[in-house]
Amino acid sequence: MDVASALARHARQGRDLRWAVIGWYAQAGRQPFPGGQAVPEPPWPAVREALLWAMERSRMQRLMTQARTGGERQQDAFYADAERALAHGPAGMPDPDQVRRQLQDGADLVPMVRGLDAARRRAGTHLMAASAMGADEIGSQVLVETLRVLMPDLSTEALAAAAEQAETDGTLGTWAIAGAYDPLALLATAGEQDMARARQRAQQLAGIAGLLFFHGLLMPNTPALAALRAAFTATGLAPLLQLMMPQMLNPTGVPHALATCLTPAGAQLADLVEALLLQHAEHGLLTGPGSQHPTAEAYMAAWLDALDDALARTRTASPEHGGPAGA
Question: Taking a C-beta distance cutoff of 8 angstroms, is the pair 28, 41 a contact?
């Protein structure tokens, strides 16, 4: 694959070519599948320009700039702008176990997903307010409840006690300071190799997030997959991990994913994920010991059969198809 064909794959009529460069960069650097071709690297100057351009024009970056420069008079405007900014883009992924149960029962997923999105977007507004104006802006109880919504598997008992004590001591406001995380500055100061490492982390995190997501879409279980999911859930960070997948699939999210993976916290998360993957994938996640599918082809066939069965149940239960609700 040459440079022209790689660019053409990501270009869209009427869309700025810088989005195509970002989409191309997100796909480059991977090991090709057997028999496939590696995606060539786009020119680094074009990548850097496109990433900075995209981040500068993003709603989130503009909102963070507003938070750093605005005063108390700007609080109402900040909340309104934060709600508008968080109304767009991914709000996170629904719990795969819950999605799996819904599909197996032939239930409608839309009400569940909409309710989860609404709760996460409200929590996101609170978290952004805490980051912009200090955690005392929302108080310890709202802060802890916000984290419970965004990371439901994370144990917050010790955090709640520490936050309450900090509020009593008058130090809660220092827990989150606007400007501590500046994605545009991270992208601007990263060199070509720094960005390549961040991309590798983001690609790996998005890939593991895909495994969690596909479990919800009735991906057949194996002992290794079950153990890997349990290990990720035990960290309490699975929702943050799952957010990486929609970001890396959309050029507008790629700069944010890369900026996250340029931070020490992003690097630590990637190291943790890699260690867990090496531990649980030693003998193969899909066809290793305990799997009922001896080959990858058999595994995929079983998965497609499960999806077909779920689709048939959903159609049977739908009022439009004369199911129970319409009887």
Answer: yes
